[in-house]
């Protein structure tokens, strides 16, 4: 089992390994789990799939090394046909299509678009139904439930699938005898309780305030919206800002950039990806941010930014990021080091937050001295520095009040 700090105790999902003939790991199927950890209990397939994706890429877990393997995830018709698409690197995922999928012209158009974008498909629970032969040219892997569809009764059909160059995956392999039989018949991959039961994955959910995600989705409908306007929107929502940094740092998303400002994060992620993530986050949003804490983080960020601007520094945007992220640990009730190691912040910003070092650390140190009313530190400043700090902190508080009022 994967070890976590005890605070990382949210149930994220379950995973079941998919093995090669040698019993080496090929990949993992990711399974939705709600409050009932043993069963899926899926009443809304779109929300379940979206929650798995958001947990995978935005939540805090210890899955980084396993995410280098391909993972399999079920996809509903609604998500296949929606604008959300997949904000995931195509090389890391196999999208599972159920054999019961209704085959419409719209669905095949969606398949074509996904394939053109580089995604691969697995046909799940295939029962050799002739009606679903039309799906075979679109898939790389065919999954056969060997309990529901005994392979010994379909030897010729299995040979025919192999002759097409398809990879065959035996699922529900419950014992050694079935494992050996499937190997003899030419199956390439294997999944089932004989090999390993699903393993629960725990971590820390990073939910977003619903309002912020919806506001971002609405803004992205405007094709002429500027990067600056989007930056302002995201900057008002610390959780959403954190999520974008988490996405940039996830190996699943295939971006892997470190950034020094929210604007940089948006540019690296791109407007198309930003829209996809905003839609998925909206589907899974549930919690509200404490208004008092939101106000503190916004005040810190704005004060650091104003101090940088007062010195005509080129690091004003970075200063805002440092101030806001300096208290993000309180939002999630986690150790600061655990929260910050998960995101794509530049090393200089991390040093400013954790050690208050460098130019950016100096702005944060001054801001915190004012916030905490640390008179010893304030008195050690020059009169001009005190005046600038007091004015910046007051202006930052007024700005934060306006932002919180606009959200409410």
Structure in words:
Residues 1-212 form the EAL domain. Helix content is 48%, strand content 12%. It starts with 9 loop residues before the first strand and ends with a helix. The longest helix has 25 residues, at 383-407. With 408 residues, the chain is an alpha/beta fold. It is elongated.
Concise summary:
The protein has 408 residues and is of the alpha/beta class. The protein is built from 18 helices and nine strands.
Secondary structure elements and their pairing?
Blueprint lengths: L9 E11 L4 E7 L13 H14 L12 E4 L2 H5 L11 E6 L6 H12 L3 E5 L16 E5 L9 H9 L3 E5 L4 H9 L4 E3 L7 E5 L6 H11 L6 H9 L2 H12 L12 H8 L1 H14 L6 H20 L5 H10 L2 H5 L3 H5 L6 H9 L2 H14 L3 H5 L3 H25 L1
Parallel strand pairs: 2-3, 3-4, 4-5, 5-6, 6-7, 7-8
Antiparallel strand pairs: 1-2, 1-8, 1-9
Helix pairs in contact: 1-10, 6-10, 7-9, 8-9, 11-12, 11-16, 11-18, 12-15, 12-16, 15-16
Which sheet architecture does the biggest sheet show? 8 strands, mixed, barrel
**Backbone CA Rg:** 25 Å
The sequence of SSEs as H and E is: EEHEHEHEEHEHEEHHHHHHHHHHHHH
The count of DSSP E runs of length 2 or more, i.e. the number of strands, is 9
Backbone shape: elongated
Strand order of the largest sheet: 1-2-3-4-5-6-7-8
- The oligomeric state of the chains shown is single chain
Structural class: alpha/beta
How much helix, percentage-wise, in residues? Answer: 40-55%
In the predicted model, the low-confidence regions spanning at least 5 consecutive residues are: 1-8, 35-44
Relative strand content: 5-15%
Ends distance? 43 Å
Number of contiguous helices: 18
What's the mean pLDDT score? Answer: 80
